Fold these 3 entries.
Entry 1:
Amino acid sequence: MVVGILFDRAVPTSGGTASLLTTISKELYSREAKENALQFVVCYYGNGHCFREIRNGYTHYDLTAARKRYFWKNVWKSFICLIKNSRSQTHSGDRHFSNASVLDCLANEEQIDAYWFTSAILEKVSKPYIFTIWDLGHRTLPMLPEVSDCINAWKIRENTYQSMIAHASYIITANQTGKKEILDNYSVSGDKIRIVDFPLASLVYEKEEKPRIELADEYFMYPAQFWSHKNHIRILEALDVLKKKYNKRPVVYFIGSDAGNLKFIQKRTKELELEDQVVFLGFIKNSELVYIYKHAKGMVYASLMGPNNMPPYEAVYFGCPVIISRIPGHKEQMGDAAFFFDPYNAEELAEQMFCVLEKAEYTKGILINSQILKSRISENNYVKDVASVFNELRSQIQTYKRV
């Protein structure tokens, strides 16, 4: 069975998107994946210069080039049909040529049996496919600018999910909370949904490198782009509480690129007089991020959006205590391996940060549980688990073709 894996455009500074897609890519190129009974090919959105090439043992198809290729092929076929029809004075030409999707054309020409959408990509396709859903933030947090600021932002997201969920053979989500969100928001059978936990990010296997700046003796860290749903503001407010109520002034390193909310967070940092405690590192190398994880007092993960996220797993792997927002997905993801706080309550977050700073026994039990969680997630293999879903799909496809 030949499976085309679709990768959306992602750059390293795009945060979790790039991290997960990079991890999937590295799993795909591993020896274990290459020995899988399925035959994978890679489909991506490139510069349009090369339609097909072999890299890392896999055939890669540039969908930008493929779109051009099939457009002109279909125009030519339609033109030939038009000439034939005009000569025979009939009107039964193969009009479907001009309407065929790039994925269907590619599948027909390259013998691809099914597709895996690794993220929320909108493409017309009649071939069987598995669709991956990371979050439904536009539904759960529609008031936030990143999902509604642009006139069509919400509609574009909604159209993608409505279209792709309806026709998907199976849907992949990371946990039961994600499954519940899908069922609560869309008319789809629960039998179509499969749970595949996030993998450990590939960065956990990189060597550490000390950052160029001198790190504080006591610090927390938060690796997240500056979206409003990442809730950096609550960390600032918690630092203000720590300073006034507990007389504690830990440093927090914000690690991530601007996604529209950076200026607001910088402004609030000045207004709360926290310039000596908040450091904006921007986008840094993975090796430096590893070092910061290993030497931090803890990671504060304040995100409002789930149902789960990759950085908490990274922190667990490096033995960094996790203080995380109490949303249903995070509770399911982390279990007893993290400290939880109400993401809208700065006092509660400040109390958790104070306990991590001052009470060593407070973190001992959490770190023991973290080691148990680490053992479990270290066995995660995202590509292998998704491949097992394709094996289910294969049995269904075999009712009408040999795969």
Entry 2:
Amino acid sequence: MDVITKIENKNQSPIALTIGSFDGIHFGHQKIINDLIAYSKKNGLRSALMTFMPSPKSYFTGKNNQIMGLREKVNYLNELNLDVFILCKFNKFFEKITAEHFLDQMLIDKLNVKSIFVGKDFKFGHQRRGSIDLLNKYHENKDIELVTFEPITKENERVSSSLIREKIINNDFKSVEKLLCRNLSVSGNVFHGDKMGRTIDFPTINIKYKSSLLNGVYEVTTLHKGKQYIGLANIGLKPTVKGINRQFEAYLLDFKENVYGEYMKFDILSKVRDTMKFKSLEDLQLQIKTDIKNLLELQKKK
């Protein structure tokens, strides 16, 4: 899969394009992407997905509650056999660009877009003035093929990233798994933390995690060198040691590997408890022992 981060020169290969945040790449997203890929192969086009970092919503609100990190998104799209991933930095330029300018100068002239795949409620351009009506005009006047999708439902609920965030906040991870068609996960490169966990006999694997979506202690699992491990992850802040940066810290049972610098992915299975502030590290140690005991009891019931 090719990754494009700058749209500068004329793209020689015609493409079929879908556009959106695609946060989580849920069941509904997968339908659009799979149809896009099948259509592209049939019509001699390259399948492409355009997204923005930060998402327009995060840009305007200043909030980061993303479901999926960028690297995880790229990896997953590559697994789906997408041909081209286009990542645009959302900034003042994209904030001000008109829908017509976006279509004419970016999609048609530079990216050589021949087909567009979007949901029927798709909005784009300055003040979200671009809509399906405008895309239909381009279909009629400039021979741009337009494929639209009705909202997709699963178990009588409209599948959306917002719904998944709601399920995550409510700790309904079984529903999250159904909507994503896989477990929710957190991934990244392991970095050297403050090594405080070692002092209380619970060394942790540390990954940067900036999203505000997950907060507390969670049951996690990961695959390393072909072996499955279970454990607990504290996600968010660390009030006991006055941590000011959000991060992901996982303690894995029976894990002794040195993984600094490695890229690791952890599946989030359930929430164990909320974040707590303890009077001492000894109190924290006792709570972790209780959490592990509860985790082992949970595993016996599965």
Entry 3:
Amino acid sequence: EATHGTAPKHAGLDRVNPGSVILSGVMMLEYMGWQEAADLIKKGISDAIANREVTYDLARMMTPPVEPPLKCSEFAEAIIKYFS
């Protein structure tokens, strides 16, 4: 379960930031000794945010705000894009 709970009002809307769940997976990978995989994911998240490819919750805090913000699935694709 995500750190913010299940957020049933957002279910099926493809808009909530998946970052906390993904970073929980990173901690699991680090625990298992899969540091290279963990590092790729952290780099992807960091680079996506640095390039303003973010979901609505982060988009509204940036100056200027990001319009339009990415969907949850698009944010995941952006993270993967920055693996290399």
